[in-house]
Amino acid sequence: MSEYEEYITKITSDLVKINSENPPGREKEAAEYVVERLKELGVHAWIDEFAEKRANAMGVIERGEGAGLLFVSHLDTVPAGNKELWSVPPFSGLIKDGKIFGRGAADDKGCVAAMLGALKMLADEDWPIRGRLIFAAVGDEEVGSGGIKRLISQGVRADYAVVGEPTKLNIYSAHNGGINFSVKFLGKSAHASQPFQGINAIYAASDFALKIEKLAIRLRKKRTFTGSPSISLTIIKGGVKSNIIPDSCESILDRRITPEEDPDKVIETVRKIAEKVAKTRRVKIEFKVMRVIPPAETDRKSEIVQAALKAASKVLGKKIRLKGLRATCDMTFLVNEAHIPTIIFGPGDLKQCHAVDEWVSIEELRKGAEIYKEIAVEILK
Ligand SMILES: [Zn+2]
């Protein structure tokens, strides 16, 4: 292993050993570890605690006048789940066959380590940059995005941002958004010996479910930069007792929207389907939009996109194509709320995220670090 591979590998493995499962969310110890590493590199660094045991790790390097570039990744992980399904202990940080194993190795501790690796490369060259380089390893990405929201509410000053997530060293300049709905169908209860005295809300919800499936099949045929839009009925709740005609049934839906789609129109389409079912089934509905995460897109001509393409081509020795991410991530807040042109880039495979026996490749981590470094040099010249 090269010096940088050793450095990045140790950090990834050490971070995996610090359990930061979210829920419950306890990033503070991991944040303290990261701040120590930043200080070793001579970076001005601090812990920003936003709740008990919840924290962002922050660092800033200032080198005179120039642009501001934000590197952001996250310290929390999804829970390891049933540990018996793992063939390696999920918090071992085991290093084997050129890989590091454990919960968070790919999502997102490898990215945190690769970004620190890039900072070490820059520090070793006595910071060949101008302007501000801000490093943030935030908390709560997997649940409420509390860490990034806090960073934005503090008025982080950056002209461009790179979100470190495992993209297998691909560059993503857009991602899909998501909307969650609750549609409650309200009928009339009756004794099940006289079902036609009542109005069965589960039948209405079933009609609705099948119409949603038809819509899902239509959406699947649309091909866009970020993949197809989608809709799924993910939860259904109804009925109280085997001999009572159910008067209420709730359906919960997950709709993924592409940057080309208008969230308001998407909401109206689902509402109309529910209203149509309500009319034919003679039930009432309670329609609720539970959550909207807007999609995000950065112009391909933006300097950050161009710098990332150039950096990745240089390090990987091949031409890189831009991609779009199907899932949502913290980029949505940077683009839609802070209006910072942002890309998503990092080592590790999305397939490993949230999976058992999660791992990340050491070679990919080193290449990721080199690309982060080149992006910084290009933007902060
Ligand atoms: Zn992640």
Describe what this molecule looks like in 3D.
The protein has 381 residues and is of the alpha/beta class. It folds into 2 domains: 3-175 and 295-379, 3-Layer(aba) Sandwich (Aminopeptidase), CATH 3.40.630; 177-293, Alpha-Beta Plaits (2-Layer Sandwich), CATH 3.30.70.360. The protein has 9 helices and 16 strands. Strands 1-2-6-3-7-15 form a 6-stranded mixed β-sheet, with helices on both faces. Strand 1 and strand 2 form a beta hairpin. The chain binds zinc ion. The site of zinc ion (ZN) has 5 residues, from helix 3.
Provide a compact summary of the structure.
This protein is α/β, with parallel strands linked by helices and 381 residues long.
Order of helices and strands: HHEEEEEHEHEEEHEEHEEHEHEEH
Largest beta sheet: strand ordering: 1-2-6-3-7-15
Average pLDDT: 97
Structural class determined from secondary elements: alpha/beta
Largest sheet at a glance?
Answer: 6 strands, mixed
CATH class of the largest domain: Alpha Beta
Question: How many structural domains in the coordinates?
Answer: 2
